[in-house]
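It would be a great kindness if you could assist me with a short task in structural biology. A protein sequence and the structure tokens that stand for its backbone fold form the material at issue. I should value your view on which stretches of the chain appear to form regular backbone elements. The record follows directly beneath this note.
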Amino acid sequence: MFAKKCGAKARTNDHKPCRQPAMANGRCRLHGGKSIGPKTEEGRKRMIQANIKHGFYSAESIAERKHVRAIIKAAMGNV
């Protein structure tokens, strides 16, 4: 009969809900209905890499900084 509506609140149009027909996830194609994310393992890895900006807080970077601090501390103790 009637298709379920998207309902996403628009910033324009006085914050009225979107009237586009909703997709399976409840939103229209304009508000994320087509976005299903990566499905393959390769796609997931690519998304993780794309979201890393600098890696300063990554586990590897933190471990490396701890190691360097330990070396410096040991060297300062031997002086």
